[in-house]
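We treat protein structure as text, and this decision shapes the records that our systems exchange. Such a record has a labelled line for the sequence and another for the backbone structure tokens. The record that follows is passed on verbatim for readers who wish to inspect the format:
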Amino acid sequence: MGSDLTSPDYWQQRQSKLKAPKDKGAMKDLLDSVEPLLREYKGQRWLELGCSPGHFSSLLYRRIPFKPFGVDFSPEAQLYVNTMAQHAGAHATLFQADLRDFATTELYDVVMSFGLIEHFSNPAEILEHHYRLCRKGGLLVVSIPHLRFLQWTYHFLFDRKDLAVHNVAMMNLRTFQTFSQVKNMETILLRHVGRINFWNVDESGPRAIALLRKVASLAIRVLVNLILTNVLPGDKKIYAPWIVFVARKV
């Protein structure tokens, strides 16, 4: 569709290579920010949009058991079910479809996405589907990578190919403030989250250049992720890796 910055093929190639993350570092910062707000929804129906490969949901499930559902249009969508079974011991239900075409009479207690809406030129359109699928009194939980400021510098230098499929302009709190106000939602959490942390490197192109890029990025990540992460305070706009939005549909 016209607003997409990616394609099913992009996700097939990317998801098939991803390894399951651990509940530590930048991932732990993200999980810690949303866990207290989700505890009252334990055991209820949670829907992840753009769910494959299911890493975030599997880590959340290990903290707070819930009934997992997912929607994804990727050819690798089945990874969601596999990940939930292998890493969380959960039986998940998958709907392999474009979320914009996904129709259901069932609404969900929690509708969430992790790194989805920034891949569209019109993120409000995708947020609207989060809202559509959520019951009254339910939660919208949305996190996106924050690829601005120092994060943008790193990705521009070492991960430019993937940076191009992200809508960096929407990576600000105003995107979510505006949506929440228009929908008259109760915003519970909206802030930059996490200690300084960099990831990803573009390994395409001539072998020598790709190797040089990989070595240089590794040196930066070792310096930052192992040293500065433990020194600099977290949740700072200049380098925080996430933006997290949690709101209740009233």
Remarks:
- The chain is about 40% helix and 20% strand.
- The mean pLDDT is 95.
- The longest helix spans residues 207-226.
